[in-house]
Structures are given as C-alpha cells and as structure tokens.
Amino acid sequence: MDPLAVVVTGLWAMLPAYVPNNAAVLAGGGAPIDGGRSLDGRRLLGDGKTWRGTVGGILAGALLSSGLNAIRPTLEPILDITLPAFPLGPTLALPVGAMVGDIIASFGKRRLDKERGAAVPVIDQLDFVMGALALVFVVDPGWTAGVFSLPVLGVVVLMTPILHLSTNWAAYVVGLKNEPW
Ligand code: CTP
Ligand code: MG
To answer: pLDDT tens digits, residue range 133-157?
Structure first.
C-alpha cells in the first residue's frame, strides 16, 4: 500500500472512533454515569462522563460509519484507494469501544486523584483509540486484522494525538470545552 493510502485508510477506519469524543462534548450534560457516587472519597468517574454524552457519542459514531459506507463507492474512484466498508459489528464496536476506553481512563484518573479535566498526556489522547481497537478486535477479528496492518496502526497511533489535540483546542477556542486538551 502506498503511503497516502496508509494514511487515508487509518483515518477513514478510525473516524467512527474519533467522532464520539467530539460529539460527547456537544451532547454532554445531565446525569453523570456514576450517579455522583464516590469510592474512597474520590468520584467513581466524575461529572465529565454523562449518559447523554456517551449515548450521543455512540450514535454519532455509528451514524458516521453508515455515512462513510454510503459515500465509499463514490470516493474510491476519486481517491483511487480501496477503502474498508464498515459491517454492523465494527459500526457499533468502534464508537462503543472509544467511549468505554475514555470512561475506563476517567476511572483510572480519579483513582490517581486527578480532578475532572486534569490533563494526563498520552492517556487522554489514546484511551479511546485503545478502547476502540480492543473492542473491534474482539467483535470482528478478521475485519480488524485486514484493515489495521502494522503501517496503518502506526499512522493511527501517531496521528490521533495530533488530531485529538487540535479538535479539542478548537472546541475550547469556540467555548465548547473548558480546557484546551
Ligand atoms: N462527555 C460526556 N460523556 C462522556 C464523555 C465526555 O458527557 N462519556 C462530555 C463532558 O461534558 C466532558 C466533555 O465531554 O466534560 C469532555 O470530555 P473529556 O475530556 O473526556 O472529559 P473531562 O471533562 O476531561 O473529564 P475526565 O477528566 O474524566 O476525562
Ligand atoms: Mg479531558
């Protein structure tokens, strides 16, 4: 696969895992998942993980997969790149895994005494990628192994932090997010 195809494939395949985070910022608010409960004096997850944000994020990611499936036949000849289609399993596993990875990271951050919104570099940028890749691998190992070759995985791990930091910074600048990370 040529380098451009590797980059495009990595971004394409991860889009349904990227968008849930940004959609959660827009959809968030209302009841926190942990119901305000604490463990050893620290919140279980915190007010930054809400039902609305999680469900909104998952819906946005799944809808995006369907949209990508729809535009794929038009885009492939234009780019001259073979793009992966999203079967039902990955359509759900990518956004659910992304949200669950982010929630697990929040649980860990609270145990380490990091308040909601505290920056934890690397973890903040890759928690949702790890969650998405792990779940999609469990749900559809054949699809995952076929799409995420080593070069594609490398692109995802390198480019995700850059994309994540720049979209979060943009969300902060327009007043949607409280912190720029
Ligand atoms: N959000 C949400 N539900 C989620 C994930 C995110 O409602 N499952 C919303 C919250 O409003 C959250 C914002 O999106 O504040 C930004 O998400 P994130 O950076 O993941 O949360 P933080 O506020 O930084 O909280 P934490 O320290 O727990 O990561
Ligand atoms: Mg955060």
So the answer is: 999 999 999 999 999 999 999 999 9
Is the beta carbon of 133 within 6 A of some atom in ligand 1? no
What six digits make up the tokens of 75? 């885009």
Q: Which two tokens stand for residue 12?
A: 């394409």
Ligand 1 near 106 CB (within 6 A): yes
Ligand 1 mean position, distance from CA 73 (Å) = 35
Rounded to a whole number, what is the distance in angstroms from the first to the last CA of the chain? 33
Q: Which amino acid belongs to residue 1?
A: M
The residue whose C-alpha atom lies closest to atom 4 belonging to ligand 1 is 49
Residues 4 and 14: their CA atoms lie apart, in Å, by: 16
pTM of model > 0.85: yes
> Where residue 48 falls among pLDDT bands split at 50, 70, 90?
very high
Distance from C-alpha of 46 to C-alpha of 51, rounded to nearest angstrom: 12
Cα–ligand 1 centroid distance for 178 (angstroms): 10
